[in-house]
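dumping this here before i forget
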Amino acid sequence: MSGRGEELREEIEALVDFDERAPGSDAERRAASHLAERLNDDGRAAEVESADTWPRWPVTYAFHALAAIVGSVLAVSSPIPGAALVLVAALATFIDCSGTFPLSRRLFGRRASQNVVSAEDDDKPGTLILVAHYDAGQQGALFGRRLEERRAALGRAVKRPVGRLEPFFWAQVVILVCCLVRLPDIQGTLLTAIQFVPTVLLIVALPLLVDVALSPTSPGAQDNASGVVAALELARRHGGKLENFDLWVLLTGAQESLCDGMRGFNRRHRGELSKSSTIFLNLDEVGSGSIRFSRREGPLIPVRSHVQLVDICQEIAEDDEEEGSFGARPLVNRTLSDGGFARARGYPAITVTCRNVLDYVPDHHRATDTPGRVELAALDRALGFCGELIERLDGQLGPEIARAAEVSSSD
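structure:
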């Protein structure tokens, strides 16, 4: 795909040119208009839909950390108010980080974001939505190479992936348990030592979160201009050609604000999209490494990806074993992705991404995430894998959805 590959790189460069396209920013708004025009040029009608976002999650989580630290110290002399403060911090972190509701982030300001939506309406029984977020995340030492490698190494040591915010949340939980133990006036050096360790972890996390809040936005070529370009290319190749699915394109804003864009899309369209006939295929960071498809997704309590979608991806991987062009493997994705958000809302959904041998993205949220670092071979593998997935969905799940639609209409 040498010739077409260079065109795709140019499309990535065009999106990256919208510098500092953080959630709710003017650059994000201009990027949305650009993508809508790009879809219109391809002959697809596209609309820009507004969505609310509360983008200051690093500041919010810094206050969560500060509240838990104060509560931990206070609990030594006053267990009840100390435990109450830590409980509030832990609950607020869980509610927000799990994508349930942007509760505490509302205290730090709302901004307007945009989703770019291109729908097909050919009255086919199913709807297949290609999803990719086009906003970019902030940089910071939290995403530094050393911390990422140690997180990956820890995941291999405990034989399960460790999310970036997972230690932050569980540190609060451990402190809360220690505070509750102190309620009946139980004291002791061992209890203090146990409580001290997670408190120190939160003290370390505090400047890291502040650093993210003060850092510039990454260029976002891999994360996620690569996914956007892949979604556009797949729409060109398969739009209007599927037998059982209308093919939609959804380019979300504010994904870096814990999926606020997808939340807005779900709220706006949940009355028209059936959970029995709508499938979300999320494309996220597909410009470097080998193919990975989610089998579970979520930063704290991973939600299982749709079983049939995982099985079809596994079939593609097994059929490809001799050629080895995809190198596809299942992945537990310990982030809050648009695919995971849709799945948590009950829709069949799966995320396709790329990872290297350490199962992390080297340029994630860094200044080095530039178009020159995108591997055209990796992008080509992602397009091939997702193209095969789309065709098999149309051939295998499509007839089931069509039969169910016929039964429903006859009733």
